[in-house]
What does this fold into?
Amino acid sequence: MPLTLITTPGSASANAYCDEAFADALAEELFPAPASWSFAESDTKRRAIVALTRRIDQERLVGDRLDSVQALGFPRTGVYDAAGLSTEPTTAIPDRVKRATALGAIALIRIWEAAGAGEQQALGPSDDAGISSISLGSELSLSFEPGASRETPFERYFSNEIRSILGTLVLAPQPRMVRG
It folds into this structure.
């Protein structure tokens, strides 16, 4: 069954920050043109948009949800525009969130296609990346769980590109320490 995008700001059933037409229009502006997006099926595009919406909602967002029943993190109160001069309207999804969603969805399809065998390779840990331990003489020694320090191509893109588009809408990622 094809996925339906619901982009109504503040809706309890919303599942996306932008629609397929917005992402298609943005893809038309890119150089070089993203062939993987252009040739992707409509349902695949919609699923990528939903995946990016969910990924953005995993970030530590500035401000507070407008309504406790809304399904998504935006719209929010207490959020300033990119220049930090005035607050964003609380009745709409900020344009930079829509743009980040669309660009991320376009990149996700490209990365997924480049991985070849499917979503797990595009989104799961890379087999050939990561640090297993760090030592600084006898003073400090850290060991990581397998896969803990690995960053997927998609997460690398998200960290470098999408977070910069979102800018002041997200707080800096916090390191997580687990004592065992």
Notes: The helical segments are 20-29, 35-39, 42-57, 95-115, 119-123, 153-166.
